Amino acid sequence: MEKGRNIPSDFKSSCLIIFIIFVISFSFAAYKRNGIWKDDLQLWKDVVRKSHEKARGYNDLGLAYYKSNQLDKAIKQYMSALKLKPDITDTHNNLGIIYYDQGRLDDASKEYVTALSLRPDFAKAHSNIGNVYLKQGRVDEAIKEFLVASKINPYSFEIHYNIAFAYVNQGRFDEAVTEYLNALKLKPNHTEAHNNLGNIYFIQKQFGDAIKEYITALKLKPDYPDAIFNLGNTYYSLSRLDEAIQEYLRALRLKPDDAEIHYNLGLAYYKQGKVDEGRKEFEIALKLKTDNPRTR
Q1: 10, CA 20 to 30 Å: which among 64, 213, 260, 271?
Q2: Closest among 182, 129, 142, 145 to 160, alpha carbons compared
Q3: Residues sharing a CB contact under 8 Å with residue 145, sequence separation 6 or more, in sequence order
Q4: Angle value at C-alpha 215, between 249 and 19, nearest 5 degrees
């Protein structure tokens, strides 16, 4: 779902349409895949060996496999846990997370529904099934689940973030702004949230607010090419062409093969009357688009 970018449209001989994709992080699991997983695996393998009749050990071994990105092994352990104890809500939810990651949306939905039948106030499961619905294009149903989750747990960054994304999908930008602001109260240093909020302000032509959000994102992550690109686009929209060009060149140092950046740099040069420089960038953009079968 990348890249969280927007493109200015001000070139007389083109049919360029503003194109915006929001970066969304579906952070379902509260477990980070880091260097600790090896110790976790050894620990929970030992627990299962010593207490093979207890479901919790299999569930936690499944989590350790999930953290190490061994998804099939994680599924096997979760299944073993549910054979011993079918009513573990966390295990159903965790199994749904893996199915979602694998693109098995119907299977994921089934697990979340089971978890919610066992525990109707399980905020994570409401949020997770909302993401399934969102992926399936069932945006109204997704929002309903996210709002239920938010009532249960109003202090979840991920839930507010997901609500914001769903509102963006429906063009409900004022409500999306509110939810991004709610999310940022909980995680003020989340770069993608600042970038996405900037994108909404850009759509609403609140360019000063957009610049503020992009600059904040870049203070947190100076090598964030999407925020750099978006900042350049905002300067372009304000006819601050020198600053726009500076940001496009900065973005190209990070992503030299990005056709959209070359194209927008060409627009800025062309608007300054630098026809040769603009033509060069358009040619590079066209070549990159032609060479990449995904963009044809």
Answers
A1: 213
A2: 182
A3: 126, 127, 129, 130, 133
A4: 65
Q: What is the pLDDT of residues 165-180, one digit of tens each?
A: 999 999 999 999 999 9
Rounded to two decimals, what is the model's pTM? Answer: 0.80
Q: Report pLDDT digits (tens) over 230-271.
A: 999 999 999 999 999 999 999 999 999 999 999 999 999 999
CB atoms within 10 A of CB 239: 12
Question: Would you list the DSSP string of the chain?
Answer: ----B------TT-------B--------S---STTHHHHHHHHHHHHHH-TT-HHHHHHHHHHHHHTT-HHHHHHHHHHHHHH-TT-HHHHHHHHHHHHHTT-HHHHHHHHHHHHHH-TT-HHHHHHHHHHHHHTT-HHHHHHHHHHHHHH-TT-HHHHHHHHHHHHHTT-HHHHHHHHHHHHHH-TT-HHHHHHHHHHHHHTT-HHHHHHHHHHHHHH-TT-HHHHHHHHHHHHHTT-HHHHHHHHHHHHHH-TT-HHHHHHHHHHHHHTT-HHHHHHHHHHHHHHHHH-GGG-
Q: Is residue 15 packed enough to be buried (19+ CB in 10 Å), middle (13-18) or exposed (0-12)?
A: exposed
